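Dear colleague,

Following up on Tuesday's group meeting, I ran the structure prediction for the four-component complex that the binding team flagged. I've pasted the input sequences exactly as they went in, so you can double-check that nothing got truncated or mislabelled along the way. The structure tokens for the whole assembly follow below. Feel free to forward this to whoever is handling the docking comparison.

Inputs:
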Amino acid sequence: MREIFESTIERLLTDLATPETVLSCEGGDWPAELWAAIEESGFTLAAAPESLGGAEIGWADLYVLARALGRFAAPVPLGEAMLGNWLLGKAGIEAQTGILSFAAEANLSLRDGAVDGSLHDVPWGRHAATLVTIADRNSATPTVVLLATETAASQTLSLNVAGEPRDSLHFSGAKVLACAPLPGSLSVEVLQLGGALLRSAQIAGALHALLDMTSGYASERTQFGRPIGAFQAIQQQLAVFAEQAAAASIAAEAAFAESDTDFASFTIAAAKVSTAEAASAGAAIAHSVHGAIGFTQEYPLHLLSRRLWAWRSEYGSASLWSQRIGQMVCDGGGEGYWALLTGHACQQLSAPERKSA
Amino acid sequence: MREIFESTIERLLTDLATPETVLSCEGGDWPAELWAAIEESGFTLAAAPESLGGAEIGWADLYVLARALGRFAAPVPLGEAMLGNWLLGKAGIEAQTGILSFAAEANLSLRDGAVDGSLHDVPWGRHAATLVTIADRNSATPTVVLLATETAASQTLSLNVAGEPRDSLHFSGAKVLACAPLPGSLSVEVLQLGGALLRSAQIAGALHALLDMTSGYASERTQFGRPIGAFQAIQQQLAVFAEQAAAASIAAEAAFAESDTDFASFTIAAAKVSTAEAASAGAAIAHSVHGAIGFTQEYPLHLLSRRLWAWRSEYGSASLWSQRIGQMVCDGGGEGYWALLTGHACQQLSAPERKSA
Amino acid sequence: MSITQFTYSTIPVEAESLRHEVRAFLQDHLGEYPATSRAQSWMGFDAAFSRQLGARGWVGMALPRQYGGAAAGPFARYVIIEELLAAGAPVSAHWIADRQSGPLINRFGTEAQRERYLPPICRGESYFCIGMSEPNSGSDLASIKTSASRNYGGWLLNGQKVWTTNAQHAQFMIALVRTGEKQAARHEGMSQFIVDLSLPGITIRPIRDLAGGEHFNEVFFDNVQLDADALVGTEGKGWDQVTAELAFERSGPERFLSCIELLKTLISAIGRHPDALQGREIGRLSAKLLTLRNMSLSVTAQLAAGEHPAWAASCVKDLGNLFEQEIPEVAQLLLEAEPRQQGGTEHAQVLAYLTQMAPSFSLRGGTREILRGIIARGMGLR
Amino acid sequence: MSITQFTYSTIPVEAESLRHEVRAFLQDHLGEYPATSRAQSWMGFDAAFSRQLGARGWVGMALPRQYGGAAAGPFARYVIIEELLAAGAPVSAHWIADRQSGPLINRFGTEAQRERYLPPICRGESYFCIGMSEPNSGSDLASIKTSASRNYGGWLLNGQKVWTTNAQHAQFMIALVRTGEKQAARHEGMSQFIVDLSLPGITIRPIRDLAGGEHFNEVFFDNVQLDADALVGTEGKGWDQVTAELAFERSGPERFLSCIELLKTLISAIGRHPDALQGREIGRLSAKLLTLRNMSLSVTAQLAAGEHPAWAASCVKDLGNLFEQEIPEVAQLLLEAEPRQQGGTEHAQVLAYLTQMAPSFSLRGGTREILRGIIARGMGLR
């Protein structure tokens, strides 16, 4: 399954998510042809149950899709659509075709089938047709809602550091397309966790591509009469980069594998920490090895490095997730530490507090 | 002045604080000959006012003494005696000859000329004849007291990671040798600041010696047919070490220079942070470059590295002093930041809170 | 070389007294200047501002009085520069002329060159760029190929420079080019020229950077006819002159203040009650900054004393770069404030801008590996 | 080589089921063992404990049944080992025999050697050390000089080894020595021998380390007469055999658990209400540990599949070392608990001990520079 998914998405992205397309989409252009091809592949519906129009694929197998999105810096909310349809499915709502995104940051109240409030940091919010989020988060009955973006009273446009849309949408008495109670097995932070999960795989993919680009450059570029990759100082940096990329890769894969049915919050948190730290180290080394050329818009390095800088912060920084792990670990004390680590798939973090600027 | 001080102490320590002496004193032996020579030099009294038996030398000039103590890993409380006599002088008490140390950590109450309570982490407490500390710290009238160690009811012996005595002394109704109110110009944390000041200079000195030892070793030791110092990876590490040693050196010197009359708490805090971080980096690089030989007791590297590990923690870790600077900076906000940095000599940290294990 | 070269040095009172004056000037002239503009630091271009600084005597102030300078010592210039940088003032127009080209012409130029070029520099009206790197030369400047050959009218210039900061705004370039055959000694046969960028045969093409800005340029020379007096200094000694020039380039406050605006917006965004992590990191960075400034002042004192502290200057540059590049990294860990190209707070926008610019800081004046190589050489290891 | 080599792998159920058993055993046998002893990790020596483990079948368990082993797969051994290390059990007596010498003899030894050496190893009674480094050889093992020359009775051994862990306690050493002239190919002409350390002509001198412990030794060979069957494997192929052996040595849990006891005392000392800095650092280290373990398990799966993941193993080793060495550094920043050689809390004593031992962790099985060189080679850079 994974092999077919991977080869399919790779073929599709190789053709339609070229560096030129990615660059042209920064700032808000929409890659209609790419999205059409993705919809046709059926991937947007993959995680939903078969009974609700999906293919009931688990996250373990979807890992390769999210990683490929990162490797190609794909300027589309495919990961977001998969997660949105997965949550709709959990709530018993029919899977959505079309451009679907989600909001983990929501301050939304639901009354009589209509919502008031705002959604923040919505990926491709300006382009999405529908959005999944959770209303009445702090009540006894948090509710999964599906909204049509056209019913938003207003939008506030934002771009992350890679020029990807991260918009806010404001609703005032807008009718929901569908709603259903959040199942008791899911926490209200399920979309935050899902977002962290997606970004960890995208970071792993982007790091992989960036490592290949950087070691290739080091082999070709000569200075002082030999390839710069022949200098010990450069070799040592590239080795560190490879280690970090490997750590990111396995941390992200572990998070998907252990979340196949329910989100494994400890492993997801660890994945976001490991990938965010690897993103920082990898982007720095890639730029250092490339020198000036890597700083130009025409060279594709920045398509990856700028996304690494964006994604490491989205759905919780390395600090936020570290602190949540740290709180859980300290709750268990030194005596319980090893058992916690080795039994981690069953461990869940307690509810978060989010700092904001 | 500095040149004479430096050449005098260096001659003395070269003769009497040999690596063999330092090693033999670890665990608690007392270098009587070394201490006798130091007392004869008059340095223990240097910082006290002339009117009270001292030489009224400012800290700017005493920097070279403290740095030399670090360079030679000298197993004596000369810095402690200088600080103790300085504080006695501030309080109008006659300078003390003999082995004098101090306690920054004190929980001592004074009544009718006698004290109850404990002193912690006292350098060479088991050897000292007299101790300076501040009693009634949390009262309206904190008091400088001079105690005879023989009046202690009991002692709890401790050694830091370099085998230097850091003892606790417990007093119960012990008569003080002298006492006087702490001058209003001094904070109750004056001994903590003074301790941090001394250790920053000792770290700078030890790093200097360790850098020389390590670059010398790298030039002599051959592997794969050439000196290991010819490998780019080793060169890059040694360059980082040199940068850190330079930073430590100037940070410590700045703290002494700006504290010539009153302790400049911001600069002292910055010195402890800079030297503690340099200590960590320098010790790690020195051990990494030396390999196995540096791990043996017979090679003198560890006489320096183990002191760096001890001193970086004493009188406040890099975290503690960073947090205190950070609180002060945040109090001033972004707008006031640059003025704070450039006017730093006048800035004082507010009173500390100390975490303990 | 030894770390004892770093001796604590303070700014003399007369230089320190300029600080109040320049702060008042900046308050008047940049009062409303937004943080997102200040974040450009010495990349911000404003010719009118440069002329105002020139009118106050703060451009080329270290140059002799007869050319419009103030014969000021290094510390006076230090105070002016660090205040401008700390405020994020737009100094890029005159920056290179003030910092490198003016001192170079004063030191190596002829009397006629001094009289011609230095007064407009001091007025803040004459802008220079430095032509060093070429395609494929990178850190290995001995491999440059652009050449000037003697002809009837002086010199004929051909070739190409790249990564030339501000070439699109500058009137002049100081170009390092080949004037002789490539020698056995790799650094011989090079010379420096003052190239009037308005001459025929010169094409300047800005290079767009990853953040969408245009600071770097490609500059092409196609049979550009230079006058005989375009040569500055001695024919064939260009490398030695450049090396002397680089010493100025390695230890000033521009080596550690590039992210000061982000540090300021970060501190304000954190507010008066930092948590233990925020307090630790803000304090740690502040301690480093204080120490770096003391190191930089120490090198300035050595320069003022006529010494050539290449080793010490490289220490400041490398530590300074690490510090500057660390600030966006730390910032994104202290607040859940995602960097924003569009929308978001001023802090989020400054964070986005400087996160993207930070990798370029270690391209300026020697890569990390090369700086550390210089230090290792100073320690006798190579 | 590619990072895609790291594929998430879980411990098979039958191996995982051993965990409960070994935990119960450790609870029974190490209940009161103090943290300061646990902190010695795999440096702690206790022959009685090793024999108890042997009796449970947990020493040499990967060896064939006919020699006393359990023919267990790599994951079963992994579970046992990580539980022993996480508990700080004193495993040093049998550690090298279990981890390196047993597998080596099983792979390269003769049937007679297997029958003679493997059963007592599996009983936890036979202890080995590894003689590799020599004075001045350091990381450059091709430069070793200790030699064995053929004579009437077998081989005559002369020379000196150094940094030999546990030689003072072991009955046998696996020694890499020169059996031929130094060749053009630097790594030829070496062979491995099983040296009975009770033979005449052998002097063992412990080396005191910076913390006062004695783990390393110098071992001198003065005309030591070895039997013909002391040779293990093929004459002249010692280097290849050692290289194969090193693959076992680079990626196990011993590569990142050396400071686990300090992490535990630190967590307990912090208590249930970490501040923002403490929470961040404890969580960050825990995330790293989880990731390292997943990497290590991935390499184990590759070994189980008969692959030779040298590149991947070096990644685990280098990251693991960095992690282990970081723990004392972080610990001293999170609490004002000064490390104590004498007095102070148990945490302060564990901190002192591991602060001092940590530099030695990167001496084991290849320095940082060499490991990174292996990785760079795997990437095609050299």
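Chain D has a mean pLDDT of 92.

Cheers,
M.
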